Queue: 2 jobs
Job 1
Amino acid sequence: MSKNYRISRPLLFLYLIFTYVIAFSLWWAYLLHSKNKLSFDELVEVKKTTFLLNQRVKETDFYLSADYLKILDKFNRQKKMIFSEGAFFIGILVIGFFLVRRSLVKELQLVNRQKNFLLSITHELKSPLASIKLVLQTLLKRDLEEDIRAKFLHNSLYDAERLEGLVENILLATKFDNDSYGFVKEEIEFSYLMQKLKEKFETNKNLKSRIQYEIEHGIFMMGDKTSLTSLIVNLIENALKYSSEDSPIEVMLLKDGDEAIFEVKDLGNGISDEEKEKIFDKFYRVGNEETRQTKGTGLGLYIVKNIVNYHGGSIKILNNTPVGTIFRISMPLMISN
Ligand code: ADP
């Protein structure tokens, strides 16, 4: 959701209640203070008359008398009590208001993002399925030449893989949401996994020239193969999606001390500092759904962040030069005995 969201009904209701309670408290504080002042004035008047009648002195002497000072002291104490308790109450109210408002805004943003997610997932599931169906129907009906058949089948395979990736992301997100990872950490050679994925990406001719790799060999870690595969694929696919089709992408895996550093650099539009804070949130996508061109569900980076946390690592987003983004992940290497 964009930051200039419209004030929704629940928020408006909250503002109204808050304004009413504040106005109500101020009114009560004012009323109590007026009553206190009134009874003070009345008491002063009574005491003064008695004092002047009994003592037969000047009026100014009354204001120096112990009687007057006692009433004044009581009045001041009550005044202080009314204002300090009022201020405390309003303070608590303001803090409560901001806490409630913050969680309400978060909740509303999540509901909105979930709505967008449902819209985009429907589209993302429907379009590859529709094209696979079309290819199968064509292949059944027509006797096509071998190279056209191969091209059709290749495209369908790509669509099927897209669907698989999407389902994998949804599954992973659900696992993280329910704390039921079901992952098995085992000794894996991260370099080998990276190499295999590189080969897979390189089956696509365009990507072969677009992505440059630097992979250090012999990087071992304790980890889960499926989720680490998802991490790599999500970051590379984002770099491809959010930069122009002819701009190069660099993927790097190397050892730094007792850590594995995995970096994906692109020359795309980059991510503003404000957005950097939000893009790991579930379903969060930059911009709004009507104007957004790229396909996506807003689950990729949410999963990436969770996978990195699960492996005890950290993730940084840096600005690339002259433009673009660098995602840098550090994860602990396996300790060799
Ligand atoms: P999705 O790509 O499905 O929208 P992600 O969780 O992978 O979801 O990413 C969240 C948002 O972060 C994206 O919508 C996009 O705006 C932004 N983003 C992610 N990677 C990049 C990148 N390499 N360059 C620019 N923006 C990015």
Job 2
Amino acid sequence: MASSIGKVVILGTGGTIAGTAASAQDNVGYSAAQLGVAQLVAAVPALAEGSIEAEQVAQIDSKDMTLAVLHRLAQRVQAHLDRPEVAGVVVTHGTDTLEETAFVLHRVLHAHKPVVLTAAMRPATSLQADGPQNLLDAVSVARAAGQGGVVAVIGARVWAGAELRKVHSYRLDAFSAGDAGPLGWIEEGVLRAVRMWPAAQGLGVDALPATDEAAPWVAVVTSHAGARGREVDALVAAGVRGLVVAATGNGTLHMQLESALRRAQDAGVQVLRASRCAFGGIVGDSTSGWPSAGALTPAQARIELVLRLHGHTAAP
Ligand code: SIN
């Protein structure tokens, strides 16, 4: 019988890790979120060597993520973390919005134990399926970590949840933490950590609106060649409350877009700048006066602005 010491709870939400295709050679024409979390666990016999519990929280392609699912996921993770017999929680998830979920959990959870997100770039039916090893590695990290915080384990690397970004659409090593690099590696079940895990920020699950309908409307606009700013005026007229601008380079804005953003700000809309560069974020203080999201991706900056407008103003 498996030991009850160091129980790891695995929460399933869908994604390619739970995806299937008609052919084992098909790595793109598959359906995500087809297998239940119990099937994912059963496919990795080594998991039976420790105490495991599995729960299906959602079954979606993560492109369709909603605040209702995020809110329920955060509630379930927190409830399991608070059980004395639980050593850590693993979440299986799609890769496409993993950086947003990781950032949400980092901001809201009281993660005094490890919360380890994992995913896969190939469906479970693929010749190259990466899900089973990623799941085993995630459970090993949850057991070995000895510290709290939200991380992601994919491709044998451990990433900080707040720093995570998807940087490749197809390759197995699709994730990065930008210049920060990984927190460590997981090799044959052994965690080799190279730096401390950032502590989760513990705003509490209720810092997150419970549904998209209950959330302040925050949209993302992009600064680009030929920007006119008319989409900003249209969004303000339609009632948007926050705008994240995916800015060029180190946070610069096309002059036409900037004029429209000033009009939006004068109308009471909060604006937050993130860089549209894959690496680097926005460095240093700008003289522009526009608030900066630092190293957050535009999608993470959008979550941050939702949290702020929902009632919290702490910086990331
Ligand atoms: C998803 O994000 O749910 C589908 C794509 C993936 O997991 O790679």
